[in-house]
Amino acid sequence: MEYIQTDAIINYANSGGPLVNLDGDVIGINTLKVTAGISFAIPSDRICQFLADSYDRQRKGLKNSKRRYIGVRMLQLSDLREKESNFPDVSSGVYVYEVIPGTAAFSAGLVNQDVIIIINGHPVHSTEDMSQAVQSNKVLSLVVRRRKLIIRKLLTASHQIAF
């Protein structure tokens, strides 16, 4: 998913409010703080699509779908490289912002600040590449950049109910 980068101050326990432009239009929902002055919001068009899909499923009486899940919060590497000079020397990949305890990613040994550069033999250029690979494959082979090391991880995606 693409995020909107903002310098809005987001602190734990008070994030989730609207991100508005100068005209007062809601353009996103504040979601994630990386460092002071670097935060991200989910674009409002993605929120609208999610709500429309959820409404359609409810209206049709469909159960919530199960999606594969590995347990990481990730950001597009290009979004962060522009602001952070001490980023790992990689040209593409996704930045692991948070590994959720008790998930496949946690069990496989992924840690915060890893950069996933290859998944199942294919270069990772975006968070969408990661999402597609996770939904298409139960077993995932990852090549990860951790500081100056290149490491390999194998993990099995689990199912999470998508609302």
From TrEMBL:
Protease as UniProt keyword: yes
Alphabetic keyword roster: Hydrolase, Protease
Pfam short name (any one): PDZ_2
Stretches assigned to the PDZ domain: 59-148
Signal peptide location: none
Classification via Gene3D superfamilies: 2.30.42.10, 2.40.10.120
GO molecular-function terms, A-Z: serine-type endopeptidase activity
GO biological process: positive regulation of apoptotic process; programmed cell death; proteolysis
Source organism, top-level taxon: Eukaryota
Family indicated by similarity: Belongs to the peptidase S1C family.
Protein name: HtrA serine peptidase 4
Organism: Cyprinus carpio (Common carp)
Lineage: Eukaryota, Metazoa, Chordata, Craniata, Vertebrata
